[in-house]
Amino acid sequence: LDSIGRQRIARVIRAAEIAESNAENEANQKAADEAGRADVAIQNAEKAIVAKRNEQRRIAADLAKAVESAAREANARGQQARFEAEQELQEIRKQLEQIRLTADVELPADARKRAEELIAKGKAAPTEENGRAMAEVLQLLAAAWSAAGENARDIFLIQQIENLVSTIVARMSKLTVKEVNIIDPGDGSALPNYVAAFPQTVATILSTLRQTTGIDVPKILAEGRNGHSGTAKWSPPAPPSGSVTSTTERIG
Fold it and tell me: pTM above 0.70?
């Protein structure tokens, strides 16, 4: 019995050991299988992560390209808009400059030109009228000379003699003697002789006029008074102004 018992115990122990070994092998196999599946899962997960990362990088790159393209397009549109705005601004400045030029230069120039034309027209009007009047006067004068025949020259001279004599008298009247010292011989003749010398000066001028031009003013005046057409009035000029100091000195 003891021997049978020991055999059975040995078989039970052996069976237990085998079962334990099988169980351990099975556990190890399962562990190995699970470890293999875990490694595969990890690898797959890592691959998936890498793929996702690559996808994210691609998406990020695409987004960056899109943003850069949009920025370039926006910049180009901005530059075009700025260029167009600058062109429009330049056109406005050009128009303003033209308006300023017109206001500051062209309009005043046109106004001055128009004013000068009006002034010239206004000045020409009386000149034109005077010309017509002078032409009519000359025609009438020519007709009068033609009707006067051989006396035309004398009539013309008589008509002009007053202006001629007035001019001579006016020139002589402008003669100014600042100071004259007269020594009278004692009979009071010095001052009258000085005053009488001035009309004699006029007579000398008229004599010189007759010698140089052939116009004898005294003769024409005398003929005018004796019956020729036209009259000529002449008054002797006054003596020159100034101070006269008369000193009476008896001589002899």
Answer: no
